[in-house]
Amino acid sequence: FELISDEGYRFDGRKPSELRRVRCNMGVFTQADGSAYIEQGNTKVLAAIYGPHEASNNMRSRVCLDKCFINCEFSQAMFSSAERKKRSRGDRKGKDMSAHIKQTFEAAVRTQLYPRSQIDIYLQVLHSDGSLYCACVNAATLALIDAGIAMKDYVCACSASLTKETSLIDINHVEELAGCAEFSAAIMPKLDQIIYSELNGRIHQDELGQLVDAVTNGCKDIFAVIDRFEVITDNTEIAVSPRSLHS
Amino acid sequence: MAKVMLGESEKWFIIHGIQDDMRNDGRSCEDYRHIEVETGVVSNTHGSSRLRLGSSELLVGVKVELGSPDPKAPNEGLIHFHVDCSPNADPSFQGRGGEDLSANISCILTRIYCNKSSIDLNTLGIIPHKQCWVVHVDVLILECGGNLLDAVSIAVKAALHNTGVPNIQVTDGDEGTQEISLPDDPNDVKFINTVNAPVLVTISKVGSRHVVDASSEEELCCNASLVMGVTKRGRTTGMRKMGGGSLDPESIPEMIETGKNIGRQLHISLDKLLKTEQGMAEDIEKAGYL
Amino acid sequence: MLKSKVIMVKTRSGKILKIVREHYLRDDIDNGLFGGKLDQHPELQNDLVSSEHFLIPDTNVVLHQMDVLEHSCIMNVIMLQTVLHEVKHRSSPVYKRIKSLCANPDKKFFVFTNEHCIDTYSARVKGESTNDMNDRLIRIAAKYYDKCLKDRNQTAVLVTNDRANCALAKKEGLDALTIEQYVKNIVGYPELLDKLAKADEAIEVDKSISYPEHLKLSQVQAGVKSGKFFQGKLGISRENYLEGKIITHGEDGKEILIQGRLNLNRAVHEDVVAVEMLPEDQWSNPSGVILDVTVQPGAEITDSEKKKSSGVPTGKVVGIIKRSWRPYCGILESFGSPEMTRHLFTPAEKRIPRIRIETRQAKTLIGQRIVVAIDSWPRFSKYPQGHFVKALGSVGDKDTENEVLLLEHDVAHEPFSQAVLNCLPPSDWSIPKEEFAVREDFRDLPICSVDPPGCTDIDDCLHHKDLGDGTVEVGVHIADVTHFIRPGTPIDNEAATRGTSVYLCDKRIDMVPELLSSNLCSLRDDGDRLAFSCIWIMKPNAEIVSTRFCKSVIRSKSSMTYAQAQMQIDDKTAKDPVTMGLRGLNKLAKILKHDRIEKGALSLSSPEVRFHVDSETHDPIDLQNKELRDTNSMVEEFMLLANCSVAKKIQQEFPECAVLRRHPEPPQSNFDVFLNAAKSRGLELNAATSRDLAVSLDRTEEPKEGIHSYISTLLRILATRCMMQAVYFCSGLESDFRHYGLAAPIYTHFTSPIRRYSDIMVHRLLAASIGADKTFSELLNKTEIQNVCKNLNFRHRMAQYAQRASVGLHTQLFFRSKVVHESGYVIFVRKNAVQVLIPKYGLEGTVFMDRDFEGNTTVNADDLKYIEDKCEITVRGVKLCVFDEVTVQISHDATNVQHQRINLKLVHPKINGISI
Lengths: 247, 290, 916
What we know:
The complex is a heterotrimer. By secondary structure, chain A is of the alpha+beta class.
């Protein structure tokens, strides 16, 4: 099984530096303070934001006097993966992902503006096909914007992998299973800062630079898509991004 | 915040309005809110549906698997229901907060579907005593806007209608073993027959009148309700009283009649919609949440 | 544009999954018509096609007609992605071949990614099977090309094996032909017709034989799973081609015998088959006596005679799981008249049955060695059907026979492809300045190399320096091949496939191109060279104080032969640093050897000879046994030490993925025949451990009553045959690292990267561990490494067989015009024959005791007495025991054109009717 064919195309027909089709929508729910839906290829994530509000009873111990605290919960629908897996809410993988996303947004949200309050970020994965963390972060960014919560900058995330000296951007599930090292990162594009990064697998030190560059470019592409959507503010779908494929 | 809180005067306002057959959003007592149903939204399930009832939002995914049948019913397949309350709907559903509600709903669903007349489970059997289809229905509640049970049952019927069970072939191998082989074409499926699938109708008693499809504010005003499962032909498959208040025994037959009529109408509209959807070309992109 | 692909998959645990994948459509896919990948004006002409045309083959044509496609006249072919995918799933050897054709720029094969091109994509129609859909996609692609080529007045021809597909395509207005029609009408290349593989209809139906039908694969798999059938690889007996056995898969592999044509049911040697056991009353025995006089000498001693009693498990083949057909060398039988087109081909490998082929060139092919591939074996045909691939040359001609033995042992010997040569540096390459900065400079050390005469690929150099403080510095410098061969490049892939250089008597088949092996990498004494060094600080008693590894630049002061080095050491007047170093090395080597022997290292021997080749005719003139001097042993000791040190280092750094070499301990049963033979002559040997074996073998050197002096060497030769094969393995997947023969706890190959690929892998690991080079994912992938090791072990074995066959070939050529009397020794006694070894020529052969040299039985059962335990045979009163000295006449026998052999006839002791 080759990740890149000899003619330079990946398994699904993309070139190594191309993102999957990104589609998004904001304001999907009426009851939540902010909500968004994003599709990156076949990875579909719904995000809902509640807040800022007074800390709920069981979280009262985490209240801070000078800033708000962010509470994040990640859950995957049972039909989201090809094989139906019964996932309980508090399992390790979910908690792990929630913690990472919480950490990501604590760096991006202007928490000092909301002291003594709580912001809830809820993420629901409807269909998972690789790059879960990245789709969740992108969905949460949009939802936070929809909720009107002040942030330092957008947060865009993208994943990349390295095979035979070429870096592949925005990996899907099949490419994840192929066993190469996978690098995901969340970036604030205008400020050009990395607020979260994670590397799975083993690569040589010399190759790290190439991977980081690839991921940064991917994130900037995603930023371009999300930004363009923002300009068309009446919640219609968008299906074009500069470096992704024609629709 | 998703939690709905009502003051005393608001409650009385609603109750008095209902007594005059005038609800807050202008409906009459037997009107349903705007229902949106879309099937086939989740592509990696065998059947799925998305439903929006007022401000309640649900997603149902159906997956079929091979399994062994219940020894008491060796020729029949199995249906399992599972309800997941996403914290998107209400922060109180975070962690294990939504478990009570999920357990309740899945229990009720199991009750109304597990009798001979709802879905013919014999069609789901493959090899008696050894293999059968196990249908897993997963309901994901994304928003709670009142009247969850009705919404869930409509969505489940739509999803089951959309579910295609692969047409497998059973060949005889050596020494009595039997090999199951998949068809070559992924579209070679047999749809589940949901002609007799029931739909839940909740009739809530508010003041002295009963209303159908209570919104979340109205639910807070009612303290007793009757939930019944109604099939297309108007027959009742199950009934349960919910809530802490009491019901007048004389009003129950009336409520049941109302329920049956409403149920029949629901079925007619739903079936019409499902038929239209099936008739549409397969290639149309599903809107989903976009 | 995004489409999705839906497939249904059934997992092993019984779950049925619906998998949805994205499928993007592009509008920027290159169709190859511009830009030089395909010719602007394809030259090949065909009577059935009016204009210049490109070919689009479908899957079956690629799977079955590779030989036609590989012919040089077939160019300008468009390979569709759909076709390639299908080929990959159906047959990986064919896939490899088609990929290499596509990679060859001269063949003008262009791969078109039709499934992602928006103009040629089509979704699955409801009710369509996968095959129909693929055929439809191929037709759509053909139509697309037709449209593109219309304004150039050219056309695309769809070539298929399937008449139905052809008809459908014609109906849609496409140019479509079956491969037969196409090939028959090609202008100018009639020989292509012979290369056509035949469809499944039998060429000739034999009424006498009708094989039972093979079961379908699914039935076979179900049967194997339930235990009704046994799966295993079929090994046909060398002595009887109608008999074979399989060793069943799994840990308790048992042997099942299969006898007779019907039971073999069209299974060919090395096929993986499913066997059903016959009922016990039908069990029989393998034929114990050597039937065939043409058994190869030196073959494994089968103890089939031991199975005397009731029958061994016997079975019959019910289905074929995997065919292992390959092209076979052989000759055409002169059968009927040369004007007939149907002939029988006899392969050189006796375990393969005869093959029926159709050819028009029979007249020219008789007397030539040809290569034939099998296509199919229908039920009603006695022999399999095949087609002619190519002719090699006249039978018996040295170059042709060399070619045959290389082909039969799957040794890749074609010249290196352009892609490989492009990876080489220019021939005027010199060490770039940056290298000096990252390497240690050893150019003023007294480095020298010692190699056999005529050696051009010098892998290793040594040096020895007295540090003055009671310790000495010893260095082994190995050619830094990995600097030139980078991972993943074509030259690396080619070297990995070849695995090792093959040394035939008169030729060397290189693993890497000559520019590297004999020039840039070779550590010659004519300039600076890049090396990978292993430096030890040792005490005078050879105890290692410290070891370090580094990349370096060296300048060898002298390239010597073993003889020259020995002379230098012995010359008392020579006092230059190189000679002083040699003496130091020699002294240390002796101590190292002694230590190794103490630990139990074995020193066995084999009768190796070297041919002197006449420089004009390249025919062998004389044979010479290999002599072992001190200097041979000196170099060997340090190479072993380097290999051990490197093994320890890479195992430490990469415990999961180090490439190591181990030699499993032979089971005691391997030694039974050998110990028995020794005991029969009164010598008690002990083979419990390698040390015991070494010690008891040494004891036999002492002179003893009634035993001649050569017996010790004979015993060593026999002991070699009891050994197992040493193999390469990946350290994460095995637990036993020991090397039995060297008595080393851990070992690898490091010192010959020019001629062994395993050394290249070890170099890469070592370089990564000292930080001199970076790692890459394949280097650290255990399964990848294990697969490469499997291939290396296979190539190593094949190279050994090829080398032995080459020696055999040259021996035959040597004896072509001579008849010689020579003395030899009996090394094995059988029920009706003895096996004789002639040390002077390194020859081994069988002398029959129950028939004369014409093959007529002259001795009847009463005159022949065989006592197995005492390893002796008495014929007409003359007793012959194992290790007895005899005299034989050696002559060349060319009666069987394909299998020419050396005949041994007994001269002394004189036995009536047997000796001459």
